[in-house]
Specification:
Cytochrome Bc1 Complex, Chain D, domain 2
Length: 173
Amino acid sequence: MTRQTKRAFIILGLLILPLIVGLLFTYQIIKIPLPTDMADSPAVLYQEGVRLSPPVGAVSIEGQPLVVGSLPENPVMADEVSLQRGEILYSLHCAVCHGESGIGDGSMVPFYEKYDADAPPDITGSNIGNMFDGALFRIITKGMKTMPPLAENLTIRERWDVVNYVRTLEVTE
């Protein structure tokens, strides 16, 4: 590299250096806002502002709406497949409180007694036998007293399978 080239780079560096230092200093002191599209976004925070309505005919993510005063009809036939699925789902989600046979003797009963909470009912008795399938479906979906709602754990079809299986637990007197 020749002497003239070195000199040119030094002069160029000396001319550009104040510009770079000035820009950095200006940004640190003045903090020039940089325009972004996200800052001007029409988005709103959670539970804030107006939400768009679902399109006409959209299927609810929560499933079949439960209208007060009306009970849904059981669309699932109580065939062998439904009863097997219902038995498996019952043993996973319900037997802990209601017991395998449905008489309310599950492994959680001592905790209900310890905290003076309502113990799980016997679901083999006539009070369950006299209920409509839609009422059982609603109880499984929304919960009741100390029973938690199972709508998040079970799909609509699975809830109907559990209803069909619970019907097989009834004791005939």
